[in-house]
Amino acid sequence: MRRIVELPVCLLDDLNAAERTYLASQRHRIVAWCEEMTGWPVEQRREGLALVAADEADTDVPFPRLRAVDFAAVMTLDQLTRRVGAGRRLSDADLLAVAADVRLRHPRAMTKELDSDVAVRDRAVEVLTALDMIRPLPEPGTWWLSPAAARYRDPEVVAVTTRIDAAETGEEAG
Predict the structure, then answer these.
(1) What totals of helices (H) and strands (E) does the chain contain, helices first?
(2) Which residues pair with 115 in a beta bridge?
(3) Is the Cβ–Cβ distance between 39 and 54 less than 8 Å?
(4) Cβ 94 vs Cβ 68: under 8 Å
(5) What domains are defined for the chain?
(6) HEC sequence for 40-82
(7) Beta bridge partners of 142
(8) Is the pLDDT of residue 23 over 60?
(9) Are 103 and 112 a contacting pair, CB within 8 Å?
(10) Residue 109: exposed, middle, or buried by beta-carbon count in 10 A (0-12, 13-18, 19+)?
(11) What is the pTM for the complete model shown?
């Protein structure tokens, strides 16, 4: 229960045998307590449990936010999930290839901060490790892609043709 409320994900692979046995026998009770304590639903999946906040203001690391770095991170998650699969190992080469693909597919979304494949990779890694979507493995240059990454598969990309502040007032972009 502490893992779900604090992290807010409890992956079965992160539990030892005794913890898995306890969760299997107390899953219904743990889910009910977490939902009662927070008011948010607990998503139950084969790989574990996740507490789903009702609003991004309810979390200390809202994701994705409306910024280029988060867009690059979401697109990176999508491509990594397609390329290697969630819950699997990946390499630095995989990360760099995906970053290059994201830059190639979405050039207009790239800012000065994301001016190279390496920059896209590095910023995406910063965001995704903070979210525990990828973890570095002991072997240098290798990573683990969390099963939770599959949640961001096939994101809908919407091209914005008007300025955000202009859209609020009804003005055309100029």
Answers:
(1) 6, 6
(2) none
(3) yes
(4) no
(5) 2-58 (no CATH), 68-152 (1.10.10)
(6) CCEEEECCEEEECCCCHHHCCCCCCCCCHHHHHHHHHHHHHHH
(7) 91
(8) yes
(9) no
(10) middle
(11) 0.70
Structure tokens at 24: 């299997």
* Distance, CA of 78 to CA of 56 (rounded, Å): 20
Number of alpha carbons in the 13 Å side-chain half-sphere of residue 121? 17
- 42 near 35, Cβ under 8 Å? yes
Sign of CA dihedral 106, 150, 146, 54: positive
At what angle are helices 92-105 and 117-130 packed, to 10 degrees?
110
In single-letter form, the type of residue at position 148 comes to A
Count how many residues are written for the chain: 174
Helix (H, G, I), strand (E, B) or coil at 156: coil
For 92-129, the pLDDT digits (tens) are 999 999 999 999 999 988 899 999 999 999 999 999 98
